[in-house]
Specification:
globular, single chain, five-stranded mixed sheet, alpha/beta
Length: about 130
């Protein structure tokens, strides 16, 4: 029984594997600070209930590892940060917003393939 409880305990955070680069959470309170500290930033706007968002999440994780040191990846839960989602006119998720030096330069909407997202990252940040 304890094994089942441990397996489905959502309060536990998985320990990052060696070399693992986490996608940082961003919220309304810390948004300006994150934007200022990361000149090349991609934010994944998502929600827990969104199936396509769950398909994009591992792709974003993989790209965060691929571009470590060059581009920062973050995620923003739209259910908990509705003002932020409204500020950027997010009406469909998943939605990836690309920020260069604090300015939004591009967006992608939908569960696109990894290669499409990678191409946008490379084009927007010249990496």
């Amino acid at each position: 029984m304890q094994e089942l409880r441990n397996r489905f305990d959502t309060t536990k955070k998985p320990s990052p594997a060696a070399g693992h680069v986490a996608v940082m959470p961003v919220d309304e309170v810390h948004f300006a600070q994150v934007l200022q500290q990361h000149p090349a930033l991609v934010i994944d706007f998502w929600a827990e209930w969104c199936g396509p968002c769950r398909r994009v999440a591992p792709v974003v994780e993989e790209l965060a590892q691929e571009f470590v040191g060059k581009v920062t990846f973050a995620k923003c839960d739209t259910d908990h940060n509705q003002r932020l989602a409204m500020q950027f006119g997010i009406s469909a998720i998943p939605c990836l917003l690309f920020f260069s030096h604090g300015q939004m330069v591009d967006r992608l909407i939908g569960a696109l393939p990894k290669e499409s997202i990678r191409a946008k990252v490379m084009r927007n940040f010249s990496v």
